[in-house]
Amino acid sequence: MHSRPASRRATFLALTVTGASYAIALAVLARDPDFSLVEPLFLLALLGGVFPLLAWLCTLGVSRAQIAPLHEPHQLPRVLLYLAGFTLLVLGWGFSSINAHFPGEPAQSLVQLVVKLVTMVLLPAWLFLGFGPGARATLPPQRLLLVFALMSLAYLAMQSVFGRGLVTLGELGPSAATLAWAIPLCWLWQTLEAGLCEEVLFRRVLQEKLAIATGSHVAAIAWGSLLFGLAHAPGLWLRGGHLMEGVAQASPGWALAYSIVMIAPAGIAFGVLWARTRSLWLVVPLHGMVDLLPQLAPFIRAWSGT
Q1: Is-contact 182 299, C-beta < 8 A?
Q2: Mind telling me which residue stretches traverse the membrane in this protein (predicted)?
Q3: What average pLDDT values come out for the chain (306 residues) when binned by 10 residues?
């Protein structure tokens, strides 16, 4: 068990380092004369402030005593080593190789899904969870369903107003019949491909082990969100992710900075939800809902040949 002063020191260290990392990354991106500070600061306020606050409000009534105790063995070094190897070998080299060998859809997406399930769910569960019983949820199913509904509506509203998903969908112009099958299937696909894979690895495994090591849920959320962002850097650099962000050429430094500033804040609200509910039944389908609108048009193109 960690003493309260030790947990406070761990929290202070995590917030200091992650805050400094964000400031440095923002300064790196700001050297580009075409880069505007408005979008990242707005994103930080929204995803790093508003949505975590909403997640906390939705889970009011979960006291500190109700949060399941941190009883699992300390495995953080092994988890970090696995995450580093996964980030470089799978998200970097592996997916680049898959894209080269399977350029067409839906074959490319299917192969990527299989690789993700193996490396982000099955292997971590075997290595670090022992396929044992999952964490016990702190809220009853009815309350979890309410939290899911409220958070889903908030994320869909945000994506509708500030995201590019509806614009891309409008450019594609799918029929009502196409949308009737594409919307539920895309949500199910994103729940499996993004929700299950990322939430098991980054919340159930990484954040849980960080909480055990630090004795602080706040520190675990901060470190976990930073690492969640950094894990996306290889894709931005090696797989052409920078082109989707309007950047013609990407350096490793740019990819690291962009992943911290633009992607890491997205993990904060999910970290709060996991710490307070410890329910994959909540965070996994909610993650699928978050990715629904941005991925709907690409999903239709991949599976309908449009």
Answers
A1: yes
A2: 41-58, 79-98, 110-132, 144-166, 172-189, 210-233, 253-275
A3: 80 97 96 90 96 96 56 79 94 89 92 97 92 69 96 96 93 95 97 97 95 92 97 79 50 92 96 95 97 95 82
Note the pTM of the prediction, 2 decimals.
Answer: 0.92
Contact 283, 271 (CB under 8 A): no
Spatial contact of 202 and 75, defined as CB atoms under 8 Å apart: no
CB atoms within 10 A of CB 57: 10
Q: And the tokens for 4?
A: 């309260």
Q: Which of 137, 157, 162 is nearest to 283 (CA)?
A: 137
Start-to-end C-alpha separation, the chain: 56
200: closest CA among 190, 192, 212? 192
What separation in angstroms does the CA of 290 have from each of 24, 52, 87, 130?
28, 14, 22, 29
| Amino acid identity at 159 | Q
Q: Do residues 246 and 212 touch, judged by C-beta distance below 8 A?
A: no
Residue matched to tokens 């919340």: 203
Between CA 225 and CA 219 the distance in angstroms is: 10
Rounded Cα distance between 222 and 213, Å, is 13
Cα separation, 247 vs 236, whole angstroms:
10
Select from 306, 301, 276 the least CA-distant residue to 137: 276
71-91: per-residue pLDDT in tens? 555 789 999 999 999 999 999
Residues 113/192, Cβ–Cβ less than 8 Å:
yes
